Amino acid sequence: MHTDRLRPVLLPVAAVAVAVAIGAAIVLAAGASPVAAATAIWVAAFSGTDAIAATLEKATPLLFAGLAVIVGVRAGLFNIGAQGQLLVGAITSAYAGYRLAGLPPAVHLPLCLAIGILSGALPALLAGVLRATRGVHEVIVTIMLNTILVNLTDWLAGGPWMEQGQPVSRTPAIAGSARMARVAGLPVGFLLAVAMAFVVWFVLDRTTFGFRLATVGANRNAAHYAGISVAGATVAAMTLSGALAGLGGAVESLGIVGRFEPGFNAGLGFDGITIALLARVSPRAVIPAAVLIGALRASSTQLQARARLAPEIVDVVLAIALLLVAAPLILRWLLRLRPGSCRTEVQLTRGWGA
Amino acid sequence: MKRSWTGRPVPPNGLVAGSLLAAAFVAYGIWGFRATAVLGFAVRSSTPLALAAMCGILCERTGVINIGIEGQMLLGAFAGFFGAAAFGVVAGVAAAVVLGALVGAFLALCAVTWRVDQIIAGAVINIAAAGFTSFLYRPGRVIGSLPTWRIPLLGDLPLLGPVLFRAQPLTYLTFVVVIGLQVALFRTPWGRRTTAVGEHPGAADTVGIDVARYRYGNVVAGGALAGLAGALLSVEITGSFDRGMTAGRGFLALAIVIMGRWRPALAWAAALFFGVLSGLVNQLNFDRVFDVPPQFVAMLPYATTIVVLAIFSTRVRPPAAAGRPYP
Fold first, then answer.
1. Strand A186-187 relative to strand A339-342: parallel, antiparallel, unpaired?
2. Is the Cβ of A312 closer than 8 Å to some Cβ of chain B?
3. Looking at chain A, which terminus has fewer C-beta neighbours within 10 angstroms, N or C?
4. Are A173 and A259 in contact (CB under 8 A)?
5. Min CA distance, B307 vs chain A (Å)?
6. Could A145 and B305 be called an inter-chain contact, meaning their C-beta atoms sit closer than 8 Å?
């Protein structure tokens, strides 16, 4: 095996390994057993078809969130709002799912998915337009939109769209005609997510449109002089990014939860960033990265039951992994690698201005 | 009349402050205790935001974007509360400041030495802070919130007394920090150098300013302020700690920095504006003038931010080198 071919995989794998090792040390310091924690994760995530299906279900919104972040990053934009866009896609598709009951499945399900996509794209479109026309940084706008959309969906699920006669705030169950079932034990939503990863890969890496986005991301001025509309690429990338997040939310509602419940998947936007960077901003590599993080996320109850650990240890490990992929310098120093290997510093920040 | 860098005439600060004060007294004359309640709420709810915004100003003025303020505040709130519960209030606040400064040092290490993308470094801080504080959180401890200090004479003034001079200790400290920073930034060599490092690090380097030292110093000091802002939330205001209790205030502070045009006093005014807005809606809700669901009250400052930025963004100019590693 040539080391050259291994290099792209080396950095993320090493980052995750080092992060897990540090996590184990933290678990030890907290007075719990790392072995028990590892067993808990294994049992919860991979033992048996049900566990694997649960892992893939957890991985599904993460996969969409990772893809959403990647589309933005290619065009030099940072969509931190995947969480809000996902939530709004989840609630509108759930609403269409119970409100439009009676439609034939061949119409109802695609309609619900389309509504989820559109409502996820809308807030991202706003962020893209503000960035392109007014120069407002998309990080600020998407963070603000996150809080707005979390509150909006909370209100909808506990107010006008709430299930009557229930003590908890959630929407009524989605009609059978809009539900996505499991096929051969695999959640259809996950299969859709994998298919989307390939679609996004094709669009970004094999089409003129993708090339335009990448040119804008690499150098705005060069793109402008080459006749590419920077504003157009900015708006298109943000909208597409939001559409992917919205689709992720719709899949979560229609395929996994079966309704909308507030408070699911807090912090998803940040997980999307971790996944996108672990995947080195490559759409197809998002699949294993999302499954890995999905496995960690799926194990939270088992971590508590078997290892008596607060499941937030997963966040700590993920933060370390994110830092290590973002700062390859640390890894190179830790693992005594030759200079030149692990060389992909991601640079997104362009300051607050245009 | 003074002119801003865009060439627009700028009214003198005294005139602006004076007319706002007059407006407040007119409101007090019409609505009485309701105006006091709204303005008191505005001051209380704006102090953590103002302190956090000072962190943002310190960092961005030297060219480092800090989106980890939220995480620094959360860690400060955590350290402040559990420090206060175990060793007393002073130790708690000190722990919050020290932890915030340490996280600031980490951000500076990432941004200056390791040249990590600054937004990613900030995201790391936010994720790790949320993870650590939840992981280590143990419920059940209670401390009282801090006492109110009434300043003699000033505390007896109508309107201004209850709003500004019957406050808790860290609120007074915030006043001092904001005013001190305003003076330091625009009236001292340190302030000029800080601005130079953020605008044109190359030029600053040429005249002998140590860019890395200034960035480290300011980001660490900023982290200390963000930690203090967290302690203000947990130790002073609520006397308790909850998972994720900062609730997006660190992010709001970023927007306040922009609205305050990277100036401490103006940023404080922006924070007060949010406070007045929320206080007004709360009061009108309380008086049953209208019935706005709490979620809409919560999203009000964030929605306002987007509108304000959309209108004014083309007229503000961030420090030119913000977000860029040097050399």
1. unpaired
2. yes
3. N
4. yes
5. 10
6. no
Enumerate the H helices of chain B as residue ranges.
13-31, 33-61, 69-87, 89-108, 118-136, 160-164, 169-187, 189-199, 201-206, 211-231, 249-259, 264-286, 294-312
| Residue B326, in any domain of the structure | no
User: Is residue B22 assigned to a domain?
Assistant: no
CATH number of the domain bearing residue B188: 1.10.3470
Is A277 touching B (CB cutoff 8 A)? yes
Q: Could you read off the pLDDT of B16-68 as tens digits, one per residue?
A: 778 888 888 788 777 777 888 888 888 888 999 999 999 999 999 999 999 89
Which residue segment(s) compose the domain that A280 sits in?
59-299
Instruction: Quick: pLDDT tens for B127-181.
Output: 889 888 888 888 877 787 778 888 887 877 877 778 788 888 889 999 999 999 9
Contact A144 B298 (CB under 8 A): no
**Is A3 inside any structural domain?**
no
- The closest CB to that of B255, out of A78, A144, A330, belongs to A144
- The answer to whether residue A154 neighbours chain B at the CB level (below 8 Å) is yes
Q: Which of B138, B307, B120, B142 is nearest to B238 (CA)?
A: B142
Closest alpha carbon to B96 in B261, B237, B234, B260: B234
Any domain includes B225: yes
Do A159 and B293 make contact, defined as CB atoms within 8 angstroms?
yes
Please give the interface size between A and B, counted as residue pairs whose CB atoms are below 8 Å apart.
151
What single-letter DSSP state applies at residue A133? I
Q: Which residues of A311-335 are buried (b: 16+ CB within 10 A; e: fewer)?
A: bbbbbbbbbbbbbbbbbbbbbbeee
Answer yes or no: is A23 within a domain.
no
d(CA B233, CA A122): 34
Tell me what ipTM this predicted complex has.
0.85
**A238 residue type, one letter:** M
- B3 assigned to some structural domain: no
Q: How many domains does chain B have?
A: 1
For residue B277, give its domain range: 46-315
Instruction: Give chain B positions within 8 Å (CB) of A37.
Output: none
Interface with chain B: mutation pick from A125, A143, A322, highest number of B CBs within 10 Å: A143
Structure tokens at A96: 């269409």
**Interface mutation vs chain A, best among B112, B113, B116, most A CBs within 10 Å:** B116
> How many angstroms separate the CA atoms of B316 and B319, rounded?
10
Q: Could B67 and A130 be called an inter-chain contact, meaning their C-beta atoms sit closer than 8 Å?
A: no
Measured from the Cβ of residue B5, the count of other Cβ atoms closer than 10 Å reads: 9
Residue A111 at interface with chain B, using a CB cutoff of 8 Å: no
Contact B141, B155 (CB under 8 A): no
Half-sphere exposure of residue B151: CA atoms within 13 angstroms, side-chain side: 15
User: Is A330 inside any structural domain?
Assistant: no
